[in-house]
Specification:
By secondary structure, the protein is an alpha+beta fold. A 7-stranded mixed β-sheet has the order 10-22-21-20-11-18-19, with helices on both faces. Strands 2-1-3-9-4-7 form a 6-stranded antiparallel β-sheet, with no helix packed on it. The radius of gyration is 32 Å and the shape is elongated.
Amino acid sequence: MPHGFVRDMLKTDNENFRLQLGACLLGSLLLGISYISNFLFDYPEFSAFVSLPAAVLLGAPLVYNALKDLWLNRIEMNELAALSFVASLASSQYKVAALIALFLVGSQLIEYRSQLGAQKNLEALLKLSPRKAWVQTRNGLKEIDAAELAPGDIVQVRPGDQIPGDGTVIDGFSTVDESALTGESLPIEKQPGNKVFGGTINQTGVLTIRVTVQVHDSTFAKIQGLITQAQKNQTPVTRLANRYVSWYTPIILMCAAIVLFFTHDIDRAIAMLIVACPCTIILSTPTALVAALSAAARLGVIVKNLHFLEVANRINTLMFDKTGTLTTGQLSITSINASEEVNEDELLTLAASIEQYSTHPVAKAVVAEAEKRNLKLWNTLDVKEKPGCGIQGKVKGESIAVGRRNWIEQLCPECPLQEINASGTTRLYVAQNNRLIGVFHLADTIRPDATAVIRGLQNQSDLQIIMLTGDQHAAAKRIAEQLSCDVESEIMPDQKMARVEKARRSGAVVGVVGDGVNDAPALAAGDVSIAMGAAGSDVAIHSAGIILMNNKLDRIAFILNLSHRVVATIRQNLIFSTLFILTLFWLSAGGAISPVLAAILHTSSSLFVVFNSARLLRVGEELS
């Protein structure tokens, strides 16, 4: 989809949204003035004068949508809303009419705004795509738009720059952060012959890359297409109240007409129409949703697509991304094997004194561990870093080398290294004067609250929890064992999406939790999608229906609990409203209720629904 088309489409939708929002705000202001003037000054004439235009402003969209549905031969909630509004307006209940319209229009605007947010994922993807590239020409390097790259072009990528397109390294050595694309938690070392992906970040060295595919065929571009496809296949949830909309209105009108025909009592017919106005039915869903949105926002949970609050009630499978979601995405030392010649702190001090001069992610982890233990580092002389191997120098007159196994073995020919068993970890070897003195084991670490949250979810409900990751199996298995959950490793973004779709085809209701670009297709394909917003990418945020503005995983359990409460509250409201209307409807038909009493009881029933829904505001108070 062309970028200009997306921008123009969003501009038109935003203009419509602003127009309706402006009318809603103005109508709400007039309604507020009407209530205040009547309460403070006891001036009913002015109150009625102000509430009438408020009702017109708020109710016009309802009437318009109802007429449009009738023109298209559709019967939906719009007809019920318009009928209740017009009935209240015709009986001079301007405030009631305006209040009904306020709730309904406000709910529609919230949903409409959610749809605009979902459309913006295309624009977010375009913003994250590589923009510039330094391509080699006969006259040297030239900066061009990344979209102009063609297979065979030679580009140079400096440290910190984004790789402009898929290709193969032909010169240089560096580490590349591919976590946003593959989910791999550790930076990947690249050397001549290795493949690189557009949109990933070059970290430590200069790379010369030969572009191998067109930009529109790159891995990043394919992910864009996957998100679009998943969103098109997503089916919205039907509201509970809409199940009986098609027959409710005709039956009410027919019953009122029959009573009027046989009794010739207009008061009975008016009372029947008043009590049958489905205000309580119509308010049952939006009042519960508004209260739930407020409770969620208090805890930093933003619900973009309101129907997810209903669907989350039926989730039986939760799929978590690993890196950045269940883990921190940063290397740390998990264990230290020191020789008899040194203790752990001495080994760490020697290694960190050398590694402080390196920018490699492994070196940063070693220095961070030394700082955590408050160790004082020594000055180092003759520091030399060998890309792809390690770093060496002199500390207090001793020759110290820190690096990979094969490099340390070359430096210590008379001291063969024994294999160290540490499944799923990166190993860093330390040598002193060409003798091995220790080994560090580094790995991605689990978030502090992840274990408790996962086990809590498993204990509280019958959920299957699966961790999806692009990591190697050994590293992924180590994390999964600590969390006591299932794991599927070494899978790419399209495979994540396929895994979600496979589970849905088998009948599972799937919730997906992630944070990166690689999670976006799976997020868009899930029944319920939750993005870790504080650390997540823009694409994941726009692809998800629910966003966590913080990194607290206990919000997942809160979302499921809130969903259960929302669905239960909506059902309570609907059951009460239905029984209330049926009872008063037949009492009105029998002449036992006057139109005035019918209006009073009608208002009371609406208040019950509002207060019952307001109980949702207290959900999650213990987490505040």
